[in-house]
Structure formats: C-alpha cells, structure tokens
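As a warm-up, study this chain.
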Amino acid sequence: MTQGQSAETVNRLCDFLRDSPTPWHATRNMARRLESAGFTRLEETRDWALTPGARYYVTRNDASMIAFQLPAGPLASLRMIGAHTDSPGLHLKPNATQYAAGWLQLGVQVYGGALLAPWFDRDLGLAGRVHVRHADGRLESVLLNVDRPVAIIPSLAIHLDREANDGRAINPQTQMAPVLMQSDSAALEPLLHAWLAREHGLENVDIVDFELSFYDVQPPAQVGVAQELIASARLDNLLSCFVGVEALLACDGEQGALLVANDHEEVGSASASGAQGPFLEDVLRRLNEQVGGGSEASLVQLIQSSCMISCDNAHALHPNFADKHDDNHGPAINQGPVIKINASQRYATNSATGALFRDICREAGVPVQAFVTRADMGCGSTIGPLTATAIGVPTLDVGVPQWAMHSIRETAGSRDVAYLVQALTAFVQRADLGGGR
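Now compare it with the structure written out below.
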C-alpha cells in the first residue's frame, strides 16, 4: 500500500467513525458500502438462493452483520474475520427525564467497562434507534443522530472538591446525568419528536420505545507533528470493523471469506446478536446447506478447514505508564498488528494460529508484535474465545495497538491501519490455511 493509499484509507476510517455513533449506524454504514461494491442483502426470515462466486451480507437486530464472499467452486473453507460494533458508553434509561436545580437532565446507564472521568465537560450528541407508530398503526424503526452538542456533564469545580485529583470515585447514578436544558418542566419526548421531524420529516407519530446513547461530537482527527496518531471515539472496535470491510472488498474472490461484526461484546456477548449467540453458526449452516456438502459431517469439515482472526484492539505501550506492561511484551504504536496471547484462554491464540498469522504478515511485508499481560495483572477478552468455543473454529486474536481503551476518545497509530488492512487482505486471499490447525 502506497503512502497515498494509506492516507486515503485513514480518511475513509475517520469518515466511518464520525458517521457511526452507535452499532446500528455502524452496521448501516458498512451495509451501504458493501452494497455499493456489489454485495446482495439477505434476510434471515426468507429462503436463500446463493450463487458460487457471489457476495452477500445479512444483519441481525440491525446492529450485527455477517458478510461473505463465496468462491467460484465448492465451499471447502472460510477465512473469517471477527470484530464487534459496540463500544462502552452512557445509555439512556427508559424513563430518563429528571430535574435538579432548575435543569432538565437525563438519567443514564453505564454500558460496558467505560472510563468515566473523560466524559465530563464534553460536547455530547445523542444517537440510537427509535421505534415509532404511524397514524395507520404501522410500527417503524428509525435511526436518530443528533450530531450537535445538546448536552454536557459538567465537572464540579476543584474549589468545591479539593480531593478531585486524589482518586475520588465517580458515582454514575448521582454525578453523571447529562444536562440538556434550563427548565424544570421540559421533557425528553417533545425533544425526540422535534429531532425526528428534523432528521426524518416524521410528523404525527407516537414514540413507542427507544435505545439511545450519548456520544462525543468532536470529530476524529489525525494528531501529532507528523500526524502519526488517530484520535477518535469508538476506535475499539469500529477500527477493526472498518479494516475487515476493507479486506473483504480488496480480496480477489478466489477463496471463501467472511466478516462477522457482533454487537454486545463490551457486555459479555450473551445475546441473540452477540458472539455467544447463534448468529454465526446459523449462517454457516445455511452456507453449508446451499454451497457446501450439506451434511452435518460436512459442516464440521468446513469449520475445521477454516480459520478465524478475531480483531480487537490491543493495549499499546503507554509512555507515561510503561510499568503496566511486561518488559518483553509492550506493543508499540505504528509497528504493526499485535498477536494477543493468554495462557488462560482469555485470548484464543495458540501456536498454530499464531504461526499462521506470522507467516501471513511475513508474506505481506507487515511487521507483527505480541502482547501478553503482566503475570500479576488480569486480562481482558474478546469475541475470539467465545467464537472458538461456540463453533470450534481454529482462532487467534489480533489487533492494532492503542492508548486509552474504553475512553470517550481513544488513540491509535495511523500507519497501523494500513498494516492491518494488508495483513487481513493477504489472509482472505491465502489458499493454504494448514498452519492454523
């Protein structure tokens, strides 16, 4: 990938991040890009008629997606890429309206393991999906994106909290309700009606239900004297979703390739559209029935002949907290993708799948790194072990290194985006997956 192509890729990533404040928006934006490249949408509620050599995608709950490229011949194996569409944040409660000191505020729930302190004093927009009822009784689900500052969570002045810099705990119930309007009588529903009318032209509809969350409206940016960094919300893990789409679009179509982007990873993946749910297995069964061997044995053969690369960002060596890393396993930003390894299977990588990825990176001319947590620290996890457990596919965990994971604004390396695209493109075009088993 040339320097110019790399810059174009980063620009596309920033556009995607800016336009995808929620998993529903991210899935919609990925779907639009796939459709523009010739992918056909499938519906799970209908019969499928799949054609060898064609490209398809299917969504579940509008927030998870599986897209796949079928080979021209029989489907004997799949090069799978896994990512997730959700990020930690602040979600509205169902009855969110509340008042304090003459201000309209909205009550929130913390979604996932969010870093709370960075949410203070940010320009917050509101986005998600809203279900409305039309005058004729028809229900409709619409996406809403109020992409301007409509709320803020103000900090308390240090003069009134002298211990604010001494590790004081933050109470999300009592201290993190965003402020929307100076009023002791305004409510959320009229505001939603106004925003729906402005964005969708929806008039005379009843709001039946919603799933909405706040987000920082500050756009993504390239940071640093040489613009070697990308700063944005939701790099974990929309960066991997974006790179997975890039690789799928760039593949030559000779091999079977699949991208799965699950929702709900940040809260354990236990849902119908999460990695612990049946979404991927359901799709694999239908692929096997239509373009594979069709039997239960051939499904096992297909899965065991395939390989899954679970892509979720890794912890980069932090210049201010270098002691948080093992001395020999501190991934550097802009030094290539990271293989994530954990002896307790918090990551799914083993020596066979790790060797396969190292060989892929060697052939693609991409540097590769390894991450292991300190022996005296706990370890996070990803969709990799969950997917491997659910369907038994050989799996490894990789990701680009980043700082400030789970913050409202995270940081990764500009060059690492191109590195991961190159590696995953080489993976989906690789004929031999023998090293991964």
